[in-house]
Design brief:
Largest sheet of chain A: 6 strands, mixed
Radius of gyration of chain B: 21 Å
Shape of chain A: globular
Number of strands of chain B: 0
Number of helices of chain A: 17
Order of helices and strands of chain B: HHHHHHHHHHHHHHHH
CATH architecture of the largest domain in chain A: 3-Layer(aba) Sandwich
Shape of chain B: globular
CATH class of the largest domain in chain A: Alpha Beta
Strand content of chain A: 25-35%
CATH architecture of chain B: Orthogonal Bundle
Strand content of chain B: under 5%
Radius of gyration of chain A: 24 Å
Helix content of chain A: 25-40%
Largest sheet of chain B: none
Distance between the termini of chain B: 13 Å
Distance between the termini of chain A: 71 Å
Oligomer: heterodimer
CATH topology of the largest domain in chain A: Rossmann fold
Strand order of the largest sheet of chain A: 6-9-10-3-11-12
CATH superfamily of the largest domain in chain A: P-loop containing nucleotide triphosphate hydrolases
Helix content of chain B: over 70%
Chain lengths: 514, 363
């Protein structure tokens, strides 16, 4: 095997899907022992490129070299054997198995058909120690934190002796403290000789952890830069092709009367026997953005379900514009409340419907779109959809008639936001409105939310992204284990203090001042 | 982009996939016949395909075409039932049971209560709605899988029907009394169709079922109600999010599905073509064949009109197999194979889709 500084070389990779070139002559060289960031907007071709490397797609053109040798990666098993491992954005773990069982899954050592866990345990503990990956091998995945789940995924790769590790947006689900820990782990791994591909569109993380960064835009390779000699501004310019403001301009809030008033609200969780939201009280006034911050799973989703009517509340009272809506059906609430849902595929869209049908999903029953006899006014729907598509710059292959499933995530989200904002509500409930979107799209959505605020709308924003919380909100409410543990002025705090609240290390008596 | 290839057209794909299924089904049927007895295989498969055309005289041809059509009407109704529920995301295997209660209600109305035909049809409709609603209510409020409850309800329907219709059966036989001998008003009128087809079973039920198919198509694709049903079927959560009452939609769609299948039964039994056998211990195949017809029809009510006819054509054609060469059951076997392969339509459609995708990639 010839000596080469590169662990992976992807040379001239081209991959096309029915007319669309997802990867156009892309070259990516990963040095041994480096952390190499792969940056690009949504739809830039990052996932496609990684899928090619992982053997999920066969490229039309180009070659892949591993340690200087040309390899033909026809399926993920081949990638596995070549020592290429991947931590997917959505973890691939078996919830009801323990950490240890998940790590050995598929490569179990057995004797006469019985599992030999002792050796596996020894190897895992060694790896865990060596790389500083703290896990409890006997805990069930469903019981451990997201951070530990991720460490389990990393151990899974190390257990298989992978030396090329791909991380697909690994920080999206972590708390600030966990992110810091992950950065540390990544550096450790690289120092131990592992080569790391790090997919992200968070510039500050890339700046902190990566050695080099390759940028893709619209399927094309833009270039590779050394992190030590670049700036976040340059990276974002490479990624978007134009200058992007990284922080949000906004005027001070001019607050009006109370639009949403929540008193002592409790909501049960999915399994119905425990309150996931406990005795929560707050209000949102016209002209302000109130942000609910917190680590995923501390009752934010349930709070929103209770507010929007997707689940029944188990106690308390909700008032919207002075009217009691505690037990109102969804449609009654949505007269004055817009809801940009957390999960756009689950709640926000009917993926197999056309774009125009999705755009009228909250309005199809209005006389504007349906005749007295119950027939849909297809022309009116088409015109309305085309107007919104134009106004909110929703891009799709076949315009209003495009099946939403075939659209990119960013444009799907734009369609939802167009639909929800254009209804001219009094209150906008936006749950992680920028999740999984690229910098350009995020900037756009942030601007729109602020514009709505300035137009006198009340905005309740639920976000897991600290940066978003700090940039957008006029007030921050932190949720921890179903309760609001702090109300913070974003101008007088930093992400460290926020992190303390979010992890439950600090709490105020918020209830007292009500 | 504007110059869309005909191959990518969805309707074209559906039709192409259906034709491939049919060809494959007939071919496999032929292979089976070859295995059993190679001598008459070619002739036998042609006999099945020819169906009524096996008769030399035109009047006989028309008459037996009529017989096929008489049974196409109820099949089409069952297929529409399956189709309607499928749009709401439900697999209505219970159509068979809804068909059975339709037979019970319409025959009981005709034979015991001496009602005119349209009242009997309405009774069947009501019975089907009630029977269908059980599936829907269980699904909506208890999240009981509609396939499980549907199958169980099929058997309950069968034995309840046997019990009920036993009270109006001919003395000494397990068959229900002939409608024409008790209550001619309960026979669906032909309005000239009987003369046209030289076949007294050919009634307005046949054009009526086609009209209903068109209505189902309009409701599903043009109305607010259809919009809600399909949205619920595609994504229950999004339906709830946008304020639709998904529980109500699920129950309504099973009720309408039940009504369609039940009315289908009344179309057959009120033509006098068949009598109900009160000792039968198997749920009639009509409801199940409806599933095949729906899929072969590309899940489109209009397509279903043609696929129902085709399936009935093959089923009836099976009767023309030479029983000297082939055992009697072979006819059922061959038709079953053809129908079974029709169920692969989605597979073929996917295949066409993928072929296009990879082709597009190389352009």
């Amino acid at each position: 095997m010839g000596e080469t500084p590169y662990a992976i070389e992807m040379l001239g990779i081209t991959k096309r899907f029915s007319g669309i070139t997802a990867n156009d002559d892309i070259t990516l060289k990963l040095k041994k022992g480096e952390i190499h960031a792969l940056l690009g907007e949504n739809g830039a071709g990052k996932s496609t490129l990684m899928s090619v490397l992982f053997g999920l797609y066969t490229p039309e053109e180009g070659t892949i070299k591993k340690d200087g040798q040309v390899v033909n990666i026809t399926d993920p098993n081949v990638a596995d054997r070549l020592g290429i491992g991947m931590v997917h954005q959505h973890f691939k773990l078996v919830e009801c198995f323990t950490v240890l069982e998940n790590i050995v899954l598929g490569v179990e050592t057995t004797k006469n058909g019985f599992l030999q866990q002792k050796e596996a345990r020894k190897k895992i503990m060694e790896l865990s120690e060596r790389y500083g990956l703290k896990v409890d091998p006997d805990a069930k995945i469903s019981d451990v934190t997201v951070g530990m789940q991720q460490r389990t995924e990393i151990l899974k790769m190390l257990y298989r002796d992978s030396d090329v590790l791909i991380f697909d947006e690994p920080t999206a689900v972590l708390t600030p403290q966990e992110i810091e820990e992950l950065m540390h782990i990544l550096k450790n791994l690289a120092a131990e000789g592992k080569s790391i591909l790090f997919i992200s569109h968070k510039l500050n993380e890339i700046m902190e952890v990566a050695d080099r960064c390759s940028v893709l835009r619209k399927g094309k390779y833009i270039g590779t830069v050394d992190i030590s000699s670049t700036t976040p501004e340059e990276l974002s310019r490479m990624m978007c092709g134009h200058d992007v403001k990284l922080s949000v301009d906004k005027k001070p809030a001019k607050t009006g009367e109370v639009v949403l008033d929540v008193k002592g609200l409790s909501v049960k969780g999915k399994n119905k026997h425990k309150d996931k939201v406990r005795n929560v009280s707050f209000n949102v006034r016209a002209g302000e953005i109130v942000c609910i911050a917190g680590i995923d799973g501390n009752g934010q989703s349930e709070l929103v379900y209770g507010l929007t009517g997707l689940t029944n509340v188990s106690g308390g009272k909700i008032e919207l514009c002075g009217a009691d809506i505690t037990h109102s059906p969804v449609r009654k609430r949505s007269e004055k409340m817009s809801h940009i849902p957390e999960d756009r595929h689950k709640h926000g869209l009917v993926l197999d419907y056309s774009l125009e049908y999705n755009i009228v999903l909250q309005r199809y029953f209005e006389p504007e779109f349906v005749t007295g006899a119950g027939f849909l006014k297809k022309n009116a729907i088409r015109e309305y959809a085309e107007r919104l598509i134009e106004k909110y710059d929703v891009r799709s292959g076949l315009g209003a008639a495009t099946t939403v499933r075939s659209m990119s995530g960013g444009n799907q989200q734009k369609a939802i936001i167009a639909r929800e904002i254009d209804r001219d509500p009094k209150l906008i409930v936006a749950v992680q409105p920028t999740r999984g979107l690229d910098v350009g799209a995020i900037e756009n959505i942030h601007k729109q939310l602020i514009a709505e605020r300035d137009a006198g709308k009340a905005v309740l924003l639920v976000s897991l992204e600290l940066e978003e919380v700090m940039n957008l909100s006029d007030r921050i409410l932190v949720m921890y284990e179903g309760e609001i543990v702090g109300e913070i002025d974003p101008k007088k705090t930093d992400s460290e203090e926020l992190g303390m609240y979010m992890s439950g290390a600090k709490r105020d008596k918020v209830e007292a001042d009500r | 982009m504007k110059n869309k290839s005909i191959l990518k057209n969805d309707a074209f794909q559906s039709v192409a996939a259906a034709l491939i299924c049919i060809a494959a089904g007939i071919f496999v049927g032929y292979l089976v016949l070859l295995m059993i007895n190679p001598k008459g295989a070619a002739e036998a498969i042609m006999d099945i395909i020819r169906n009524f055309a096996n008769y030399p005289r035109t009047t006989a041809k028309v008459k037996y075409l009529g017989n096929t059509l008489v049974k196409t009407a109820p099949l089409l109704m069952c297929a529409l039932s399956v189709n309607f529920c499928y749009k709401t995301g439900l697999f209505n295997i219970g159509a068979a049971g809804q068909y059975v209660v339709g037979a019970a209600a319409s025959l009981y109305g005709a034979l015991a209560w001496h009602m005119p035909w349209y009242v009997c049809v309405l009774m069947a409709m009501a019975a089907g709605m009630v029977w269908g609603s059980f599936v829907g209510i269980l699904k909506a409020y208890r999240n009981v899988n509609e396939v499980i409850s549907g199958i169980m309800l099929n058997w309950i329907a069968l034995y309840l029907t046997n019990m009920l219709l036993n009270t109006v059966s001919e003395s000494g036989t397990p068959y229900t009394t002939q409608v024409k001998s008790v209550n001619t008003a309960a026979l669906i009128p032909g309005l000239g169709l009987q003369e046209l087809f030289v076949n007294r079973y050919v009634t307005i039920a046949i054009p009526l079922s086609v009209v209903i198919a068109v209505i189902v198509w309009v409701v599903l694709s043009k109305t607010k109600f259809g919009f809600e049903l399909c949205a619920t079927g595609y994504n229950r959560h999004a339906a709830k999010y946008s304020g639709m009452s998904e529980k109500r939609n699920v129950i309504l769609s099973t009720m309408i599905g039940g009504a369609l299948a039940a009315v289908g039964a009344s179309f057959l039994y009120l033509s006098g073509y068949e009598q109900w056998q009160t000792t039968q211990s198997a749920v009639p195949a009509m409801g199940f064949n409806g599933i095949a017809a729906t899929f072969l029809g590309g899940l489109n009510p209009i397509g279903t009109i043609f696929s129902s006819y085709f399936i009935q054509h093959i089923t009836s054609g099976g009767a023309y197999l030479d029983t000297n060469i082939y055992p009697l059951q072979i006819a059922d076997l061959i038709t079953a194979i053809i129908i079974y392969l029709c169920a692969f339509i989605l597979f073929f459609k996917q295949l066409l889709d993928r072929r296009n995708a990879s082709k597009g990639g190389k352009n």
